[in-house]
Design a protein that fits this description.
The protein is an alpha/beta fold. The protein contains five helices and five strands, in the order ααβαββαββα. α1 packs across α2.
Length: 193
């Protein structure tokens, strides 16, 4: 396997982990990559968990910063760094939400449930607003057509950065959280209590 691929695998699995980094064998990296990319934490909802989920064309992000602490620029900086880490990823920040296929909401906890129910899932009477942060990926056999990430900005730096990295990356395709991958950002157990 090419060194660049191992670098991407390590970046995906180890980004923003609270556990001290250690050396990983090739077999451990491959195993973690396969469980993250080929699985789905939402398999029980009927997702095709063994299919690789990815955007097949350009990813156009719209960052909607509604937070009182103003963390939108941090999100933009992270998104603009992604093409350097993921070969072939075509990313652009757009100023019009109607031209975006990936919306990132940066908001305060007080607005979390309302944004998820009314704007992400467009079901204002629903109570479905799980987790401390969230990503919704809409995909089919032909790839991801859109993603929406909801990142809480007013509950500390660790949670903000952890959620920003995990949710934005998961919205690009590796949607599985794996409890046993303690060193991975794709493990909800690494969130602070």
């Amino acid at each position: 396997m090419r060194p660049a691929v191992f670098g991407l695998i390590a970046a995906i699995l180890l980004t923003a982990s609270p556990v001290p980094a250690r050396a990983f064998s090739d077999a451990e990296l491959i195993d973690g990559f396969e469980r993250t990319v080929f699985g789905s934490e939402y398999a029980s909802f009927g997702w095709q968990s063994r299919l690789v989920k990815k955007f097949t064309g350009p990813v156009r992000f719209y960052v909607d910063d509604r937070s009182t602490v103003g963390r939108g620029a941090d999100v933009v900086d992270f998104i603009q760094m992604l093409p350097q880490l993921i070969a072939g990823l075509d990313v652009k920040i757009v100023g019009d939400p109607d031209t975006a296929n990936y919306r990132v909401f940066v908001l305060d906890r007080a607005d979390y449930k309302q944004v998820i129910t009314s704007e992400v899932y467009e079901r204002p009477t629903s109570t479905f607003a799980p987790g401390r942060c969230l990503v919704r990926v809409v995909s089919s056999m032909s790839g991801i057509s859109r993603s929406d990430a909801v990142i809480v900005a007013d509950e500390g730096d660790f949670l903000f950065h952890r959620c920003m990295v995990e949710e934005i990356l998961q919205g690009l395709g590796p949607v599985n959280d794996v409890r046993s991958l303690l060193e991975s950002v794709f493990n909800d157990q690494s969130l602070p209590a």
